[in-house]
């Protein structure tokens, strides 16, 4: 029996039963605690409990989905306690932008991220925790490179050329357009995340809202003695899936077949292709190149947070250290962060506070090349006789370099973010009572984001001349917001008003210095002036915006709600004639469950709200100055003298360039049934984007190559579904489930106004923005078909073993007219399932996510018999031979894919995303050892993937050699990572 609360003279044993007030059924698992003490227990399956307490003690009864109740222990030793279902979920305050509202009063589509996703998952970026847990928020972890952040798309792609990422706001101050990223925000500091999705919800952010808005609120201080919290985890990482290369014998057979079908010779008569391979083959020496470039990844994170304060001053301070050693050699990431949030009440009418943070990112180190490792023969030579790495392990072939060579370099990649935000709030009602409800708030923010990259290549990578480069860039952003709010109840009527006047300025500058031909490698980037050839370039830009916004919320009797919003934005990057745009919206909601006619079924239908909204939002995501015709200089030598020649750059100016606008309709229903045993939200939406910001190609006779124009129309239609059920809640055991489902259909309505497609950009009217446009493969040409002339009048160039493509145009030849839209790169639908189990102090959370209907070009299959037949990975790839006349795999002939078919494949998958097992030390036990709370957990991420994709992972980036994505090439190919960690959360 737990000890009773000291200070009471008479101790007694209390027995009782806790029941549901609506049906008198016993409630198991109800927590019974002596208020102000440590004595506690839980009810049995029938609701009964026994507890030793002192006379006069106050018992607090709490249970999920029910209102709390307090009872004072008097003379009776037997208690009958009735708990009523709670509508607290509806009373919960939700951040909606420039303020908060009760969930029951929200008229738009606002999704809250489950808090348990934010506390016990080993993620380096909060978006990784959100992935798959919120409907129609498509988060893609295309790269597992330490420190990389995933891409986020809310309710489909609303633009074709402009940026389509969401707008991030942290503690009321925009993070987007400061040069910083969501990776700067330490997940341990986050209190809540809300996602604004529909036109009414995002309209208050006007030009920035068309792609959705993500509001992040960090933790604040609380009144009381200081509370110290430690959160830490450590674990290991490994490749979630490794492509198995062919064996040495299988590779020799491949070489033999490649030489035969292409009529080429093997080295020294065979069986290998080059000198280095031959030596190792003769000596029986082989190398596992994946093992050579891979290692066991290690990740650790430590966070200390301190919060507390008095009635007039509260604080939250945290410091965090993250260290991640990647599974590929040289991929390292460290993050150091510090946050200080303060709130002060200077007088009864004036309060102020800060939300500041400093973060440093370190991505130093040379990195191994996974793609080069995948191309290596097991007989390739890793080291020279003197112990140095070979330049070309398969010499005399010089197409593939040693994948470990980059690890001999030591580039510096550093990034910092210093953000200082503050606010001051004036409550006029505390100055003069007739002004009750009227407040003014000033928000000010400053962000300084410097970045630098220093790199040098010398003899270690066989650059005997030497090459060095220093890249420095920085952005300085100022944000000022003036917010006036008025909140008042008039009987059954409720009105609140929000007015905004804001300005933002961002200055960006970049400088790049390079040097070539150094006397030795000792100088490196530390003295580029020592290079024989030097080059310097720089650029700078200034972005400014000005915004006004007004929002009115009206509610009657908590039944009928109306929201009207209008915002006007101006931004400097648009043409002189259209710098400002206006974005209105309207929304209504009806709390049906509060109607009198719902009384007979109020115990069945606890919540029922219908919402409908329409509004316009914008997109300004084009580069600064791109509406102008700018001049550039080029060196020009005439008469032995060097001069600067001034000319227009390739971009034409457009003084009429204006905002891209997205008009959208949303209707939805929120519901709670059977004492909220089943709750959910269903939304249907349709958006229409016009005046799209398109980079339009121009005829060269104009003197320009392209221009930003307002052209085209785009539609998105979809549905969001979120369902949560309390499946079992008996005794000490509970089981709840949450299902999210999202479907989005994206369609180009118009491009240039002439009804024509843009094949070069893969834009097709009536199809989504991202599509696969290619030939249709119908098999492999067989010898018997070629002998019989089946290819005549179809594909005259076909040979046995080549890819057989459909002649869809029917003109008797295979050409560009036979290409068609085969599918979309974005998924047609996504879903996630979370199951949470608790038994006493133990918890188990299992999360599964699925992505269906996506099509991707498969570089593994496409490259299988290209590049001189070198590819030996993956082993699952076969090839056609006269003896094995496959109808799936092509031959190793250099002419087996002369039309450049890219082998699009189904990229659908279902993933066991994470599993977390946790244990909470009972509070009574923790109190005895002087600790406020202890939670230990074990967690695994990306544990298993079900897919038919042939490659590293259907979601992961896989860039063919020599290509690039977002400015980086195959050097940043990185496998999907599986992570296992042990974590501990302590409260003192």
Give your account of this protein's structure:
With 988 residues, this protein is mostly beta strands. Helices cover 6% and strands 47% of the residues. The chain is built from ten helices and 51 strands. The strands form twelve sheets. It has a 22-stranded antiparallel beta barrel. The longest helix has 15 residues, at 248-262. It is globular, with a radius of gyration of 32 Å. The two termini are 24 Å apart.
- What is the overall shape? globular
Q: Can you tell me the residue ranges where pLDDT is under 50 for at least 5 consecutive residues? A: 1-9
What helical percentage do the residues reach? under 10%
Count of DSSP H/I helices: 10
The biggest beta sheet is recorded as: 22 strands, antiparallel, barrel
Number of DSSP strands? 51
Structural class: mainly beta
Estimate the mean pLDDT confidence. 87
Report the radius of gyration as a whole number of Å. Answer: 32 Å
Strand portion, in percent? Answer: over 45%
Q: Quote the distance from N terminus to C terminus.
A: 24 Å
Keywords: Cell outer membrane, Membrane, Signal, Transmembrane, Transmembrane beta strand, Transport
Protein name: SusC/RagA family TonB-linked outer membrane protein
Family: Belongs to the TonB-dependent receptor family.
Subcellular location: Cell outer membrane
């Amino acid at each position: 029996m737990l000890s009773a609360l000291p200070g009471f003279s008479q101790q007694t044993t209390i027995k009782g039963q806790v029941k549901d007030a609506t049906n008198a059924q016993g409630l198991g698992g109800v927590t019974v605690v002596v208020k102000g003490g440590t004595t506690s227990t839980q009810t049995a399956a029938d609701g009964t409990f026994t507890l030793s307490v002192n006379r006069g003690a106050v018992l607090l009864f709490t249970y999920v989905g029910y209102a709390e109740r307090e009872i004072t222990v008097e003379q009776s030793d037997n208690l009958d306690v009735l708990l009523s279902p709670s509508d607290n979920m509806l009373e919960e305050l939700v951040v909606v932008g420039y303020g908060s509202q009760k969930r029951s009063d929200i008229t738009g589509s606002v999704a809250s991220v489950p808090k348990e996703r934010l506390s016990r998952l080993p993620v380096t970026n909060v978006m990784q925790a959100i992935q798959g847990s919120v409907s129609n928020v498509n988060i893609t972890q295309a790269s597992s490179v330490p420190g990389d952040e995933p891409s986020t798309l809310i309710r489909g792609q609303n633009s074709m050329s402009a940026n389509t990422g969401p707008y991030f706001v942290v503690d009321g101050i925009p993070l987007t357009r400061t040069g910083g990223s969501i990776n700067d925000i330490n997940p341990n500091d986050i209190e809540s995340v809300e996602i604004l999705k529909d036109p009414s919800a995002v309209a208050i952010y006007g030009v920035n809202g068309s792609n959705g808005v993500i509001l992040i609120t960090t933790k604040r201080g609380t009144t009381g003695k200081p509370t110290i919290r430690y959160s830490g985890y450590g674990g290991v990482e490994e490749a979630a899936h490794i492509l198995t290369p062919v064996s040495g014998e299988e590779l020799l057979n491949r070489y033999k077949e490649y030489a035969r079908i292409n009529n080429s010779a093997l080295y020294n008569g065979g069986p290998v292709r080059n000198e280095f391979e031959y030596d190792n083959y003769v000596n029986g020496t082989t190398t596992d190149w994946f093992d050579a470039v891979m290692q066991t990844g290690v990740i650790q994170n430590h966070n200390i947070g301190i919060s507390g304060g008095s009635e007039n001053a509260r604080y939250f301070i945290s410091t965090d250290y993250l260290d991640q050693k990647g599974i590929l050699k040289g991929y390292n990431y460290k993050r150091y962060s510090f946050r200080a949030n303060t709130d002060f009440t200077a007088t009864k009418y004036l309060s102020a506070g800060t939300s500041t943070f400093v973060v440093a990112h370190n991505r130093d180190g040379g990195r191994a090349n996974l793609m080069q490792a995948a191309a290596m023969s097991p007989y390739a030579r890793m080291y020279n006789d003197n112990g140095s790495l070979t330049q070309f392990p398969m010499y005399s072939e010089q197409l593939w370099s040693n994948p470990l060579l980059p690890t001999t370099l030591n580039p510096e990649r550093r990034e910092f973010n210093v953000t200082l935000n503050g606010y001051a709030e004036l409550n006029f009602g505390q100055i003069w009572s007739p002004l009750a409800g009227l407040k003014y708030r000033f928000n000010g923010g400053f962000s300084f984001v410097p970045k630098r990259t220093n790199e040098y290549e010398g003899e270690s990578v066989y650059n005997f001349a030497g090459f060095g480069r220093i890249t420095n860039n920085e952005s300085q952003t100022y944000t000022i917001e003036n917010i006036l709010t008025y909140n008042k109840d008039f009987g059954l009527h409720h009105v609140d008003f929000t007015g905004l006047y804001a300005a933002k300025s961002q200055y960006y500058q970049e400088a790049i210095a390079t040097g070539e031909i150094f006397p030795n490698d000792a100088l490196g980037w530390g003295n580029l002036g020592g290079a024989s050839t030097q080059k310097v370039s720089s650029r700078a830009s200034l972005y400014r915006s000005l915004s006004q916004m007004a929002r009115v919320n009206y509610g009657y009797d908590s039944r009928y709600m109306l929201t009207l919003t209008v915002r006007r934005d101006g931004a400097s990057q648009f043409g002189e004639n259209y710098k400002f745009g206006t974005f209105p919206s309207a929304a209504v909601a009806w709390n049906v469950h509060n109607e009198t006619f719902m009384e007979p079924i109020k115990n069945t239908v606890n919540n029922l709200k219908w919402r409908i909204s329409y509004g316009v939002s914008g997109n300004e995501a084009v580069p600064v100055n791109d509406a102008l015709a700018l001049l550039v200089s080029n060196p020009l030598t005439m008469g032995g003298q060097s001069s600067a020649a001034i000319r227009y750059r390739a971009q034409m100016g457009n003084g009429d360039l204006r905002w891209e606008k997205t008009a959208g309709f949303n209707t939805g229903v929120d519901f709670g049934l059977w004492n909220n045993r089943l709750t959910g939200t269903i939304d249907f939406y349709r958006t229409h984007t016009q005046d799209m910001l398109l980079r339009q190609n121009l005829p060269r006779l104009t003197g320009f190559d392209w221009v930003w124009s307002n052209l085209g129309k785009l539609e998105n239609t979809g549905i969001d579904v979120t369902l949560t059920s309390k499946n079992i809640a008996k005794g000490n055991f509970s089981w709840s489930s949450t299902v999210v489902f999202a479907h989005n259909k994206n369609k180009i309505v118009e491009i240039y106004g002439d009804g024509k497609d843009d094949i070069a950009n893969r834009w097709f009217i009536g199809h989504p923005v991202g599509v696969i446009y290619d030939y249709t493969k119908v098999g492999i040409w067989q010898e018997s078909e070629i002998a019989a002339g089946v290819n005549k009048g179809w594909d005259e160039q076909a040979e046995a073993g080549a890819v057989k493509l459909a002649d869809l145009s029917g003109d008797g030849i295979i050409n560009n007219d036979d290409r068609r839209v085969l599918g979309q790169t974005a998924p047609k639908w996504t879903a996630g399932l979370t199951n949470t189990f608790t038994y006493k102090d133990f918890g188990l959370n299992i999360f599964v996510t699925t992505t269906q209907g996506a099509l991707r070009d498969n570089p593994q299959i496409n490259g299988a018999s290209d590049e001189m037949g070198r590819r030996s990975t993956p082993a699952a790839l076969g090839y056609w031979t006269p003896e094995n006349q496959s109808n799936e795999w092509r031959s190793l002939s250099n002419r087996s894919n002369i039309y450049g078919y890219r082998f699009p494949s189904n990229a659908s998958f279902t993933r066991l995303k994470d599993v977390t097992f946790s244990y909470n030390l009972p509070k009574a036990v923790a109190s005895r050892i002087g600790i406020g709370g202890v939670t230990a957990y074990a967690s695994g991420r990306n544990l298993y993937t079900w897919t038919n994709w042939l490659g590293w992972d259907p979601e992961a980036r896989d860039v063919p050699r020599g290509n690039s994505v977002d400015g980086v090439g195959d050097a940043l190919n990185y496998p999907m990572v599986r992570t296992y960690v042990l974590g501990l959360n302590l409260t003192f």
